[in-house]
């Protein structure tokens, strides 16, 4: 368990200490990272740890805003870091010209397919799905039927994200939420009736399985319907007259609240991340579709879990969870830019294959894949999913490469066909001066 922080003790001395110029930069640094007591107590200042914690707490209380769900009150602080980052994302992942220049128009479909797969795989792996990324991507591209619970989780997440992107402008209702959960949990729960259904008992705990400790006890199940109704209003209302909350912060709070309410027997984490994704798309942050946020969460899972616990331990202070998630989004955005740069370099290599007569850009990419992976096997479904094209277009592309001699057909059964590297592949590349 996270160490419990000392109780805040207000006094005139704390006010005086907060006004000292030499402590202000330290307080700003602590609040920008939004450190909890377990880190603050090791900061080297002239104050004793509990005195420094009192100063930090007062600085936060003076700038905090509050909001309520049911009988539960939460607060958050708009720190300098939070304000800086939300402004950056307004300019870079929203509907501004700067954002539109990040991904080349001709590459958007390709990147979108890849990012949705990455998000589906990572969100499932956070919850224990056990399979390699390579195998998972092949399963999704070729639409191979899942054979294990882990594979089913990944397929469910993938279909859920696609469902959200197609319905991103809809309002959130309890029925829509149940449908999201039904899609996410299909054939992965012990009891079929729990798919797309709110829990009907209190026999639900969030447990740290490494230490076998309960880290969160959700609200009573009878509170769930009312809490979800309030969350739907929070999701759907554009502006709160009394308290404006930036859309990025609202999305993160929605993510947290699903974890806090824990409305389902299982699948709450995947549902929470799906709602966060949905909310930002609804609010115009279109580049969110290309960010694999769950991949960064997966890499920092311990910090993700602590962000929940810090919030609850420190009087439901959401700034711990907000700060963590904004840092995740920064890393996901940087990863996207690096990914695009790598793909752009690869694009120059693909350009060689486009010089071959009667070859389109998709076919050039397929030739590059065969050149790099001679054992690769294609089928029509994979091409449809890889490039987000129709069955007719996928078949035409593959048939064209067969007719040009680059691929061979391998019958699977009376209907299905696979496509592999032709024995003439290298010879043809030399003929066209590609190698």
Task: Itemize the secondary structure elements and their pairings.
Elements: H1 12-18, H2 21-33, H3 37-40, H4 49-63, E1 64-69, E2 72-77, H5 80-92, H6 97-100, H7 108-126, H8 133-142, H9 149-166, H10 174-185, E3 206-208, E4 213-216, H11 224-236, H12 247-261, H13 268-282, H14 293-299, H15 301-313, H16 319-354, H17 361-372, H18 380-387, H19 391-403, E5 407-411, E6 417-421, H20 425-431
Antiparallel strand pairs: 1-2, 3-4, 5-6
Helix pairs in contact: 1-4, 5-16, 7-9, 7-14, 8-18, 9-10, 9-13, 10-13, 11-12, 12-13, 14-16, 15-16, 16-17, 18-19
Protein name: Fic family protein
GO molecular function: ATP binding
Domain Fido: 172-327
Please give a quick description of this structure.
This protein has helices spanning 12-18, 21-33, 37-40, 49-63, 80-92, 97-100, 108-126, 133-142, 149-166, 174-185, 224-236, 247-261, 268-282, 293-299, 301-313, 319-354, 361-372, 380-387, 391-403, 425-431; strands at 64-69, 72-77, 206-208, 213-216, 407-411, 417-421. With 435 residues, the chain is mainly alpha-helical. The strands form 3 sheets. Strands 1-2 form a two-stranded antiparallel sheet. Strands 3-4 form a two-stranded antiparallel sheet.
Task: Explain how this protein is built.
- This protein folds into three domains: 12-67; 78-336, Fido-like domain (Fic-like fold, Orthogonal Bundle); 355-431, Arc Repressor Mutant, subunit A (Orthogonal Bundle).
- 58% of the residues lie in helices and 7% in strands.
- The protein starts with 11 loop residues before the first helix and ends with a helix.
- With 435 residues, it is mainly alpha-helical.
- It has helices at residues 12-18, 21-33, 37-40, 49-63, 80-92, 97-100, 108-126, 133-142, 149-166, 174-185, 224-236, 247-261, 268-282, 293-299, 301-313, 319-354, 361-372, 380-387, 391-403, 425-431, and strands at residues 64-69, 72-77, 206-208, 213-216, 407-411, 417-421.
- The strands form three sheets. The chain has a two-stranded antiparallel sheet. Strands 3-4 form a two-stranded antiparallel sheet.
- It is built from 20 helices and six strands.
- β5 (407-411) and β6 (417-421) form a beta hairpin.
- Keywords: ATP-binding, Nucleotide-binding.
- GO terms for molecular function: ATP binding.
């Amino acid at each position: 368990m996270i160490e419990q922080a000392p109780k805040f003790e207000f006094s005139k001395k704390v006010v005086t200490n907060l006004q000292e110029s030499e402590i202000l930069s330290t307080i700003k640094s602590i609040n920008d990272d939004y450190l909890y007591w377990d880190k603050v107590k090791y900061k080297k200042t002239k104050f004793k740890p509990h005195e420094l914690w009192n100063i930090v707490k007062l600085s936060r209380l003076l700038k905090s805003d509050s909001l309520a769900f049911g009988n539960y009150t939460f607060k958050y602080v708009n720190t300098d870091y939070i304000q800086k980052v939300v402004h950056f994302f307004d300019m870079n992942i929203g509907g501004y010209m700067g954002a539109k220049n990040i991904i080349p128009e001709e590459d958007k479909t390709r990147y979108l397919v890849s990012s949705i797969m990455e998000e589906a795989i990572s969100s499932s792996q956070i919850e224990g799905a056990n399979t390699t990324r390579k195998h998972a991507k092949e399963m999704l591209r070729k639409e191979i039927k899942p054979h294990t619970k882990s594979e089913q989780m990944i397929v469910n997440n993938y279909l859920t994200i696609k469902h959200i992107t197609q319905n991103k402008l809809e309002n959130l209702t309890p029925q829509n939420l149940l449908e999201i959960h039904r899609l996410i949990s299909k054939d992965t729960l012990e009891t079929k009736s729990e798919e797309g259904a709110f829990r009907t008992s209190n026999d639900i705990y969030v447990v740290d399985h490494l230490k076998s400790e309960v880290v969160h006890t959700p609200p009573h199940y009878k509170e769930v319907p009312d809490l979800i109704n309030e969350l739907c209003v929070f999701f759907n209302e554009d502006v709160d007259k009394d308290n404006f909350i930036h859309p990025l912060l609202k999305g993160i709070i929605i993510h947290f609240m699903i974890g806090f309410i824990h409305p389902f027997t299982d699948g709450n984490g995947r549902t929470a991340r799906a709602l966060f994704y949905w909310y930002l798309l609804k609010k115009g942050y279109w580049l969110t579709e290309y960010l694999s946020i769950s991949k960064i969460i997966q890499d920092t899972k311990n910090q993700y879990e602590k962000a929940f616990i810090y919030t609850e331990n420190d009087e439901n202070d959401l700034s711990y969870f907000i700060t963590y998630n904004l840092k995740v989004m920064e890393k996901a955005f940087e990863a996207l830019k690096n990914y695009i740069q790598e793909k752009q370099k690869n694009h120059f290599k693909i350009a060689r294959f486009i010089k071959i007569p009667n070859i389109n850009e998709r076919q050039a990419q397929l030739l590059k894949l065969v050149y790099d992976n001679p054992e690769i096997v294609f089928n029509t479904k994979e091409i449809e999913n890889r490039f987000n094209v129709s069955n007719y277009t996928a078949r035409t592309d593959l048939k064209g490469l067969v007719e040009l001699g680059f691929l061979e057909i391998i019958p699977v059964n009376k209907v299905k066909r696979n496509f592999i590297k032709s024995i003439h592949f290298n010879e043809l590349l030399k003929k066209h001066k590609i190698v």
